[in-house]
Design goal:
There is one protein chain. Among the domains are: about 120 residues, no CATH class; about 90 residues, no CATH class. About 40% of the residues lie in helices and about 10% in strands. The chain contains 10 helices and 7 strands. It starts with a helix and ends with a helix. The relative contact order is 0.08. It comes from Macrosiphum euphorbiae (potato aphid). This is PiggyBac transposable element-derived protein domain-containing protein.
Length: about 325
């Protein structure tokens, strides 16, 4: 038999089968065991969707009819000021970069650093059993000017990177810089090890961020006073690289810096960070996922003002939509 004869035979068998077969008594819910898996999956998915719609449909309809989800909130109907605080525009039009640094890292924060650093250093200095040659025995209280100098050196180190802290005080021409003219290496290192902004005696046992939480709160307050978010805001996360020992250090394999501290940020259109939250471990509460809780905390000051929030699929969920 050639190819044409085989095809003709198959066609004739197919026609006779369809004419002779009667499915009037067939079970409409029956499906062949050889049915492709993807078809079964699609049907089950549609069934699940129908069940979900039937389950929550009435609730959503009630929400819309009651105005809960259909409130038509208009953003800024009174045309209040948004964006950069007008006082900053007026008073800092000719300001230098250091002026903007002190706009956020102001005297309030520096004074707290001075007080708590001295408190912690003196407590360590008075520790029983301290070695006679321990460097902390030579501790002298720091002050506002020295703390400013310390942070200036730290920022300079961030721009001029050398293999270690000790290299900034080497006499070699390869590593020469002006830092030794302003502060000795011993003094810099002891301030670095004693630096504090909170009282250790008041630290709760269940708060991993206690030592820096007050600094975070102060900075967020100053961020919000400097710039009032406009209509569109977004939430995303970033990773601060860190390889040291830390209980809430994260590992994310697909990031450029795989090890570090994860920070959730609420940002405005011009990439300004309006609010942020450091992730210190599992924080989900009863009935809420971590992502839902993060969004609600970051958006808390701006809820019900008609703003539009943009976020990726990591944050979008039914839980969040129902809030």
């Amino acid at each position: 038999m050639n190819r044409q004869e085989i095809e003709a035979m198959l066609e004739s068998n197919s026609d006779s089968y369809s004419e002779d077969y009667d499915d009037t008594d067939a079970d409409p819910n029956w499906s062949s065991e050889s049915e492709p898996d993807e078809n079964i999956y699609e049907r089950e998915l549609l069934d699940n969707c129908n069940v979900t719609i039937n389950t929550i449909g009435n609730n959503w309809n009630n929400d819309f009819s009651n105005g809960r989800l259909n409130s038509h909130i208009i953003f800024n109907p009174d045309v209040n000021t948004t964006g950069i605080n007008p006082d900053i525009i007026e008073t800092m039009s000719d300001a230098s970069p250091i002026d903007f640094f002190y706009l956020f890292f102001d005297k309030e924060i520096i004074d707290m650093l001075v007080v708590e650093t001295n408190r912690y250093a003196n407590a360590k200095k008075n520790t029983a059993g301290l070695s006679r040659h321990a460097r902390i025995r030579k501790w002298v209280d720091t002050n506002e000017q020295e703390i400013k100098l310390f942070f200036g050196i730290a920022m300079w180190m961030g721009m001029m990177k050398l293999p270690s802290i000790a290299h900034y005080w080497k006499n070699s021409i390869l590593y020469s810089c002006n830092i030794p003219k302003f502060m000795s290496r011993n003094r810099f290192e002891i301030i670095l090890s004693m630096l504090h902004i909170s009282d250790n005696d008041k630290a709760p046992t269940n708060d991993r961020l206690y030592k820096i939480q007050i600094l975070i709160d102060l900075l967020v307050e100053k961020f919000n006073s400097a710039v009032i978010p406009e209509e569109s805001v977004c939430i995303d996360e970033s990773m601060v690289p860190y390889l040291g020992r830390l209980s809430f250090r994260q590992y994310i394999s697909n990031k450029r810096h795989r090890y570090g501290v994860k920070i959730f940020k609420l940002c405005t259109r011009d990439f300004y960070t309006s609010k942020y939250k450091i992730y210190a471990g599992k924080e989900a509460t009863m009935g809420d996922s971590v992502s839902c809780k993060v969004v609600m905390e970051l958006m808390e000051p701006y809820l019900d003002f008609g703003r539009t929030l943009y976020a990726d699929n990591c944050y979008n969920s039914i839980d969040l939509a129902e809030k």
